[in-house]
Design goal:
By secondary structure, the chain is mainly α. It has 6 helices and no strands.
């Protein structure tokens, strides 16, 4: 019975991890949803599967992912000459784009919406700050490119977190009478041999 409940918890955890991975695309803290889901899973299963080492590993990965996304996205926008208003416009535009510009195509549609919103937001921010339209377009392209690379970088880290947790949290397939996990029995198949002459 305990094992069956653990498997239910495992599938709920897998669903939370996939949702967390997806909401990364819109700039939401999806990696932290994945970390929180793993911690809750560890608590309800009394740390029988995913333990402290797993949580520390994914915390480090999530932190590195946030840093990498920030550096990559900001570097491209700055290189294109973005001002503070342009950067703020890019961030707000990315969130608005995820809501209003997402096209009905799984994953790629959301990435398109976020990047297009980032592009428009950076342009609006720059124009409001007094930058000429030509320069604003260059900033918009730089901000959208940086956002795309940031999303892909964070998505890569998210996939590593997903794989790490799904392997570490996997309950065993068979339980012994003592309540401890045991390996499934091996079946030996006899092989027919020819009689000696």
């Amino acid at each position: 019975m305990t094992l069956m409940v653990d498997w239910i918890y495992y599938f709920v955890l897998a669903a939370i991890l996939i949702v967390g991975l997806y909401i990364n695309l819109v700039g939401a803290p999806g990696l932290w949803v994945m970390v929180l889901g793993t911690v809750v899973y560890g608590l309800v299963t009394r740390w029988r599967y995913a333990g402290l080492k797993t949580v520390i590993a994914i915390l480090v990965l999530a932190g590195l992912a946030e840093l990498a996304e920030f550096v990559v996205a900001g570097a491209h926008a700055k290189r294109a000459g973005a001002s503070r208003r342009g950067l703020i416009g890019a961030i707000v535009g990315g969130i608005v784009g995820a809501i209003f510009f997402t096209i009905p195509f799984p994953v790629l549609g959301t990435i398109f919406g976020v990047c297009f919103g980032t592009f428009l937001g950076a342009i609006v921010g720059e124009v409001m700050g007094g930058t000429q339209v030509g320069s604003s377009l260059r900033v918009g392209v730089g901000a959208a490119t940086g956002r795309l690379l940031g999303i892909l970088t964070k998505l890569l880290f998210g996939c590593v977190i997903l794989g790490t947790v799904l392997v570490a949290a996997l309950p065993p397939v068979h339980w012994g009478r003592s309540g401890k996990a045991v390996a499934a029995p091996t079946v030996v198949v006899p092989v027919a041999t020819k009689p000696a002459r």
